[in-house]
Amino acid sequence: MHHPDAVLALLDLAPSGRVDAVRLVDPDAPALHALDLAATRGDGVFETISIGRGHPQALRPHLTRLASSAAMLDLPAPDLDGWREVVQRVADALGGHEEAWVKIVLSRGVDGGDRPTGWAWGEPSADFSVARTEGIRVALLDRGYRSDVARTSPWLLAGAKTLSYATNMAARREAVRRGADDALFVSTDGLVLEGPTANLVVRLDGVLATPRTDVGILPGTTQADLFRWAAGQGIPTRLASISPQDLQRADAAWMVSSVRHAAPVRAIDDRAVPVDAELSAAMNAYLSGRTE
Amino acid sequence: MHHPDAVLALLDLAPSGRVDAVRLVDPDAPALHALDLAATRGDGVFETISIGRGHPQALRPHLTRLASSAAMLDLPAPDLDGWREVVQRVADALGGHEEAWVKIVLSRGVDGGDRPTGWAWGEPSADFSVARTEGIRVALLDRGYRSDVARTSPWLLAGAKTLSYATNMAARREAVRRGADDALFVSTDGLVLEGPTANLVVRLDGVLATPRTDVGILPGTTQADLFRWAAGQGIPTRLASISPQDLQRADAAWMVSSVRHAAPVRAIDDRAVPVDAELSAAMNAYLSGRTE
């Protein structure tokens, strides 16, 4: 079911969000109340952080984004120092593994209660070498929203990393039905957005481009990390409005995320996309913490 | 936190969805695994069923809708006979209460596992007499989707009752910020849809009307029940395409749902709507099982 080295930390949170205590518990024991709003309403936020030999990657941006998501959901502001310690504790426990990950979850708590629920689950990563080297196929799917939805309708929580991912999971199943490995969302007004659990990076005219974050998507922590690295390598980067037509002239593309890292895209719907094996390997060496 | 008579039933489900066993457990003990996809992805479906003196209301339509939601999420088909027994067992335990409710949840299960998770939570209802007699204020909020989204983009799961309700909860908070009690969604192409946890019924020209179900909304079990009752009372009913402009000439409106029953709407945004106290009382007497 899960890796034998899996780690589960349960947090005792004050109504303010303050981390009062942390307990490492048996990962197989039931941990959540049946009325926890995480389970009954998907009403909470999360982050998944990569761990390279005990070192959490891009921890500060992940915690910043957790706080941003929590604010969008009117949750208590997460106690970032407390959460940082929890992540490090899980990372320490998994320090013997080349690659691992930890998911941190902050929910609104048990329905009718006065305090949020928090937990952290960590385990060694699966082997993503096929996705990272051979690449993945993606299917373009309508996200149903206009690209300005975060501004016009903030209650739709576009740009918050919530636990309500049923549509993301359904989109991925639809992509698989279409013979692809992952989905890539497009807004109703024709802008490429993001995947269900990954950001898009495309190479257009020698520039690494990713969709602007004001189109109702999550700002990518891995994408940002990658762009800093690229800049250091002399590869130009930019945020851009990207249409499905733009994708047709991309000479390389990647879906980037915290755990799978940079998966080169080898097809978008029926169109093959070249895989830049050398650049993909360099990206993944960096993201895995094997190079600086 | 919850009523002392609360009841929690945990189901042992086979990979096929078959109910193998049911255990009544301590409602306060942790019940769910930290990797349950209900809690990490909002990846499951639910129903909330009203119980009047031990009698589950409209049980068959609720179970039918559970099966429909499960199919939209590619979940194993729920074992409806098994679930019916679970609901009746919880209802029996709550039979001493005038009004109670039970929420049944079917999730995709623990991530990486091969079987769904199921549970049922029941407890006596809160007192909704103020909402049922004085009425509620609703705020119109953009749902962000076109009304044809269920047909064009089924992966968005419009019309499935999923656990991914973070936006529904956020919409209700936004309604409260606007001085209202509940939200009422409108499609981007100008059709009135549903509330976060309730269906709309309006009286237009002497006819009780509710939005057509092909606009990406949940078919309302309580609304359907109410329309059958209304027909028996000689009150005409119909499904209709309803615009915000139509709401302005409604001479009565209700938000109807399984537990709160029929809450008359006394204002939509800034416009007052007349409350038909007599008809509201008759509706709620019927929905509470106090009349046939």
UniProtKB/TrEMBL annotation, chains A, B:
Coiled-coil boundaries: none
Instruction: Write down the InterPro entries for this protein, in alphabetical order.
Output: Aminotrans_IV, Aminotransferase-like, BCAT-like_C, BCAT-like_N, Class-IV_PLP-Dep_Aminotrnsfr
For this chain, the family text in UniProt reads: Belongs to the class-IV pyridoxal-phosphate-dependent aminotransferase family.
Q: Which GO terms describe its biological process?
A: carboxylic acid biosynthetic process
Q: What is the lineage of its organism?
A: Bacteria, Bacillati, Actinomycetota, Actinomycetes, Micrococcales
Q: Name one GO cellular component term.
A: cytosol
What organism is listed for this UniProt entry? Schumannella soli
The Gene Ontology terms for molecular function here are: 4-amino-4-deoxychorismate lyase activity
Look up the EC number in the record and give it. Answer: 4.1.3.38
Q: Which keywords accompany this UniProt record?
A: Lyase
The record ties this protein, via PANTHER family, to: AMINO-ACID AMINOTRANSFERASE (PTHR42743), AMINODEOXYCHORISMATE LYASE (PTHR42743:SF11)
Q: What is this protein called?
A: Aminodeoxychorismate lyase
